[in-house]
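Extended Data, panel c. Modelled sequence:
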Amino acid sequence: MRQLTYLDKRILAKLAPELEGATGPAPGHDFKFVLVPVSHRVSESPEDFAARFTRLTDEELTYLVDLILHGDEDVRSLAEGDFDALVEVIEKRLPEKARELLAQE
């Protein structure tokens, strides 16, 4: 099981400050991914999900895209519409990374 790194937890805190202090679904269990808890537990819509990514730096967003590209971040389990909303954000800010991501599908 993937353990969230310090950077993962920092990004999760930026995307979902509502989860502050929570490291997982139950005490002592870390989330396996950054995007899934934001998608399912916090964001209210694909638009809200996408808007949360404006809080990240380009470097942090690149890091998340690289995790997705390497299969270390789950996008298949996101709520309906959230992946498409994320791709739109990536296309605007990191077009080259968006092409890599879409080519992998």
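The chain has a mean pLDDT of 89. This feature is highlighted in the accompanying rendering.
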